[in-house]
Amino acid sequence: MQIPFNELLELATQVFQSAGCRPEEAHHVSERLVEANLVGHDSHCVLRIPSYVQWLADGKVLANQNAEVITSSDAITVVDGKFGLGQTIGEQAVQIGINKASRHGVAVVALRNSGHLGRIGDWAEQAAAAGIISLHFVNTSGAGMLVAPFGGIDRRLSANPLAIGVPREDDAPIILDMSACTIAEGKIRVALNHGLPVAEGCLIDADGKPTTNAKEFYADPPGAIFPVAGHKGSGLSLMIELLAGALTGSSCSDPANASRVANGMLSIFIDCSFFGDSSDFFPEVRQYIEFVKTSRTTLPDGEILMPGEIEARTRVQRMSDGITLDDVTWAQIYATARHLDVQHDYEKPAIQEDPGNDCITMPGCRIL
């Protein structure tokens, strides 16, 4: 199924309005999800619409919430997301950090109890658009335990994404958006929907044996994801848990909190103008990037890419060609829209709307 960006955005907006969101929030959440499709982050996109709608129906995430400031000083703010939709709560928390960093040079925002925050690169991009450097560390309080620690078999860690954004003068910012594990669960879901194997070195089954079969990850008992870079990624993931979970008050990954998906995020904001003349910073960023790109490439037609460049190119291509959805994802979105009596003119899925590998029926599947 292929849908133009604007049409997919309109459909998603109608779905979230019908699920109880005010028009502005419905549009805002949909825009973030469809934007993830647009830049090629197909693990954090409209794939999540059925889950979000189910969570809204179950009261596990709440529509139309505003972030609540718990404590605040010149540089530090603790914010409670009140289990609101993360696309709303995340933007509000980041705006607090931008405003404070602009006044004081640096700010730290500890966000607790947010609904799923989506693509964490969104928040680095928001800050970079305001000329602010930012770092974001994110965990899931219990429902998102997906990753085995280095040397282990059982799930003990969240995917634990981090994002870092550095603005550039008259150019797109540098946005590093990654997780501390080898693959996002959403990408495992995409592989499952397409009937494709997952890349080697990403997953183990319930017995700790390496596997490329996405079904093993969702089996009962479930498999787990490897941390990225072995012991280094495992250590990084642990530190993200402590920063995003313990320090924010959102809690580290804990089976006792597995009844709902809630994110904690520790964000650090830096206004580079407080560190000296920006006419020094931006040229240095530019010249170093240019220098890195002069490296010889391992392939004759190879290219050294900066973080965020692939997303920018994918955006241009998909804005022109439309966004392609696999049959299973489209079937689930179609069924969700029909359940909410959302009227649209899109074609019926080629497969049954309740496919046998539906996430909701599979143990351990949370699409994080």
What do you see in this structure?
By secondary structure, this protein is α+β, with helices and mostly antiparallel strands. 38% of the residues lie in helices and 17% in strands. It has eleven helices and twelve strands. It has helices spanning 5-18, 23-38, 49-58, 86-104, 121-129, 185-194, 214-217, 231-247, 278-293, 309-321, 327-339; strands at 2-3, 68-72, 76-80, 106-114, 133-140, 161-168, 171-179, 203-204, 210-211, 224-225, 263-270, 323-324. The strands form three sheets. Strands 2-3-4-11-5-6-7 form a seven-stranded mixed β-sheet, sandwiched between helices. A three-stranded antiparallel β-sheet has the order 9-8-10. Strand 8 and strand 9 (210-211) form a beta hairpin. The longest helix has 19 residues, at 86-104. The radius of gyration is 20 Å and the shape is globular.
Structural class: alpha+beta
What fraction of residues sit in β-strands?
15-25%
Number of alpha- plus pi-helical segments: 11
Shape from CA axes?
globular
Draw up the topology in text.
Elements (H helix, E strand, L loop, with lengths): L1 E2 L1 H14 L4 H16 L10 H10 L9 E5 L3 E5 L5 H19 L1 E9 L6 H9 L3 E8 L20 E8 L2 E9 L5 H10 L8 E2 L5 E2 L2 H4 L6 E2 L5 H17 L15 E8 L7 H16 L15 H13 L1 E2 L2 H13 L29
Parallel strand pairs: 3-4
Antiparallel strand pairs: 1-12, 2-3, 4-11, 5-6, 5-11, 6-7, 8-9, 8-10
What's a concise summary of this model?
By secondary structure, the protein is an alpha+beta fold. The chain is built from 11 helices and 12 strands.
